[in-house]
């Protein structure tokens, strides 16, 4: 029995045959208990008393209801009992024969019915198995769409279809990632090649050589940032290799201090409200998460704008002013190489990996990242992370919840 259908057929058929044997035994016992008395009751009144041997020993009269209501001779009872014994044995023998034949036919039908029923029950499983064997990158769009009444197998088929939906989305995202990464890497290489082949042709003057050198250095730095971002994204996608208690409020304050000079240069005010929060995770990855959020809020802003950073038990929130963002495109910003605006190839422009790294780091820590467009412009990004036990704070006055760094404000 190497198949589930054979096992189920054997189980169902065995149960049905056992039920038939039990039913036959019960019927035989019930019939054998009353067949003799029933025959004697029916035969005794019809036996002529004048033909009986008067010297025959008179047996004890039965104590049944008919014996108390009818007047019988002792000889009549003796003959009826003899006839009843012979007739009862014959009836039980016939009953056993008919029951045995019926049980054999019933058993054969039960096994056939069990085989058919097992095949019908397992048919959706066979469909799922066949579809899974045919799956490849070219037919991930196919679905089972099993038409069946609600039940476990219908739920299994629907779950399989849902799994195919997620796999198809993942494969499509990986394909877009590979295409976008190739495009992003090809651009600086094309710039470097053009600068070397065109700019250095025909013995250029020293000023042009210096300009080309700066251009090549900028292009190499852009490629380096892109590769570092890809490596960081790959590391965060692998999950955490170590865990430690990290003060998220302290990391956020340190990032705000590190970016204070850029905020002053861009004439942007940064407001930080940090409550004590401890997160179990990787300090380096969490630092990248906070840095990417705050840096994006600064670089996708306008002069005189504001960046508000809040840290608390509910997580990290970074809101910024800036251009109006279409709410439909906000979820797409968490995919690699997605930008709210078209790429301008300006110096210092990011590779479009910031929010995708944020989402990857959040998932690695068991949290999630999201964002919403502000009606007046800009984004509000939120990251929720599982928090650890609160840290003990040394005695002293309470710490103010606000911190501002911006134009003309010391950081």
Describe the structure.
- The chain has 411 residues and is of the alpha+beta class.
- The protein contains 9 helices and 8 strands.
- The strands form 2 sheets. Strands 6-7-5-4-2-8 form a 6-stranded mixed β-sheet.
- Helix 1 packs antiparallel against helix 3 and helix 8 runs antiparallel to helix 9.
- It is elongated, with a radius of gyration of 45 Å.
- The two termini are 77 Å apart.
Architecture blueprint of SSEs:
Layout lengths: L3 H40 L21 H5 L4 H61 L17 H48 L6 H32 L6 E4 H11 L1 H6 L3 E6 L3 E4 L1 H17 L6 E7 L2 E6 L33 H11 L3 E6 L5 E6 L18 E3 L6
Parallel strand pairs: 2-4
Antiparallel strand pairs: 1-3, 2-8, 4-5, 5-7, 6-7
Considering the chains and any ligands shown, give keywords for the structure.
single chain; alpha+beta; six-stranded mixed sheet; two-stranded antiparallel sheet; 9 helices; 10% strand
């Amino acid at each position: 029995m190497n198949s589930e259908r054979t096992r189920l057929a054997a189980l169902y058929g065995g149960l049905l045959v056992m039920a038939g044997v039990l039913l036959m035994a019960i019927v035989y016992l019930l019939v054998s208990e009353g067949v003799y008395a029933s025959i004697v009751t029916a035969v005794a009144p019809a036996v002529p008393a004048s033909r009986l041997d008067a010297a025959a020993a008179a047996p004890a009269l039965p104590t049944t209801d008919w014996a108390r209501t009818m007047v019988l001779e002792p000889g009549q009872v003796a003959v009826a009992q003899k006839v009843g014994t012979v007739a009862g044995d014959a009836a039980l023998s016939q009953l056993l024969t008919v029951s045995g034949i019926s049980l054999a036919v019933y058993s054969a039908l039960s096994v056939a019915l069990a085989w058919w029923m097992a095949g019908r029950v397992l048919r959706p499983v066979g469909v799922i198995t066949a579809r899974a064997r045919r799956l490849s990158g070219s037919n991930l769009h196919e679905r089972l769409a099993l038409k069946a009444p609600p039940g476990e197998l219908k739920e299994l088929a629907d779950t399989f279809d849902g799994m195919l939906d997620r796999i198809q989305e993942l494969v499509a995202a990986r394909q877009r990632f590979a295409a976008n990464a190739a495009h992003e890497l090809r651009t600086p290489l094309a710039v470097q090649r053009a600068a070397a082949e065109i700019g250095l042709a025909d013995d250029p003057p020293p000023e042009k050589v210096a300009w080309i050198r700066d251009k090549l250095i900028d292009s190499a730095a852009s490629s380096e940032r892109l590769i570092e971002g890809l490596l960081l994204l790959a590391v965060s996608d692998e999950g955490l290799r170590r865990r430690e208690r990290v003060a998220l409020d302290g990391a956020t304050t340190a990032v705000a201090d590190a970016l204070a000079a850029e905020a002053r240069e861009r004439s942007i005010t940064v407001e930080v409200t940090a409550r004590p929060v401890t997160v179990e995770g990787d300090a380096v990855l969490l630092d990248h998460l906070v840095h990417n959020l705050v840096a994006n809020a600064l670089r996708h802003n306008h002069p005189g704008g504001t960046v508000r950073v809040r840290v608390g038990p509910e997580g990290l929130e970074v809101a910024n002013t800036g251009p109006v963002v279409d709410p439909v495109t906000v979820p797409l910003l968490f995919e690699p190489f997605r930008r709210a605006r078209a790429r301008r190839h300006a110096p210092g422009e990011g590779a479009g990996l910031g929010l995708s790294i944020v989402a990857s780091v959040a998932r690695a820590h068991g949290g999630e990242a999201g964002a919403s467009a502000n009606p007046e412009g800009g984004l509000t990004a939120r990251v929720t992370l599982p928090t650890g036990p609160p840290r003990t704070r040394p005695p002293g006055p309470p710490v103010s919840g606000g911190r501002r760094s911006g134009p003309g404000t010391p950081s």
